[in-house]
Amino acid sequence: MAILINEVRISGFRGIANLEMSLPKVAVLIGQNNAGKTSIIKALQLSLGDYSRHLTDEDFYIDNNDAAQLEIIIDILIVPVDESSKRINAFLDEWVEVFGELVQADIEGNDFVGIRTICEKDSIKGGFKVTRYPLSRWGGFEYWTDDSAKINNKILKRIDVMPFIAIDAQRDIHLELREKTSYIGKVLSDINFESDDKDALEELIAELNESAIDKSTVLSDLKTHLDTLSQSFEGQGQADITPFPKKIRDLAKRFSIHFGEDATNSFSMEYHGMGTRSWASMLTVKAFIEVLEKKHIAEEECFFPIVAAEEPEAHLHP
């Protein structure tokens, strides 16, 4: 594993005025509704993921006097660990290469990486401004918002080898199949074939489309009428009906998942219950992580995904 997000501090985000918490390798947040479990996940997503594009005025903490806090501050502490998740003195060389100048040492000489995310309203451009800075020290909670720990060199890009993957409580593989930004959509966007394989598959699809039209009076009649489109273009052009995707690149657009007792007795996900659809959605997240992992291994890069699942047990039978 080599690294661990050891501590998180959140200030001024949603219902959280100030919060400091330690995180083991696997953390389970348990609490009543409105206790702040989702807020912690979204704060981590703001620091490490893509939540910044979803920021709204309601994400800024409002105190008992109805005064909104002017900024959100999220700090994360990354430390080196061994295989048993026990903290060690120094990052491995490959992680030093990843973090570079972000690596700092405490007074005892132990390596750490501290990252501060500051979110504030942008009075000039409108919207919100999200800035990340490295920290030179990880002080006590009573003065952690002190800017003296902040190194003024901004972190200009995300650490790609540490993707933050958030799984919402409301998840439905049937709906996600139509969304390019969903995890299944990201997996499908990675479909790739060798040139020869692509040509051979598209030739088979062309034959399949031609056969489907020849054997269907309705499709044949439709094609005959659509062919008259050429009259509007001085006899140029020809209508092409494709019951099946014509190009390999379009396969993902009509991609579907069926499940059942066997191949001949299966049904599309839209006909299954929410438990099956929710579980299938989570399995696509697992597939997405493995796709990312293979890419990083191929490039001989480090890889440390952080997965946060809201209500992972939702819709599942006990």
Protein described:
- By secondary structure, this protein is α+β, with helices and mostly antiparallel strands.
- The chain has a domain at 3-159: Rossmann fold (3-Layer(aba) Sandwich), CATH 3.40.50.
- It is 26% helix and 20% strand.
- The protein has 7 helices and 10 strands.
- It has helices at 37-48, 93-99, 173-176, 183-188, 195-214, 217-226, 274-298; strands at residues 3-13, 16-22, 71-80, 104-105, 111-121, 128-135, 164-167, 258-260, 266-268, 306-309.
- The strands form 3 sheets. Strands 1, 2, 3, 4, 5 and 6 form a 6-stranded antiparallel β-sheet that branches.
- β1 and β2 form a beta hairpin.
- The protein is elongated and about 80 Å long.
- The two termini are 31 Å apart.
List keywords for this structure.
318 residues, alpha+beta, Rossmann fold, 7 helices
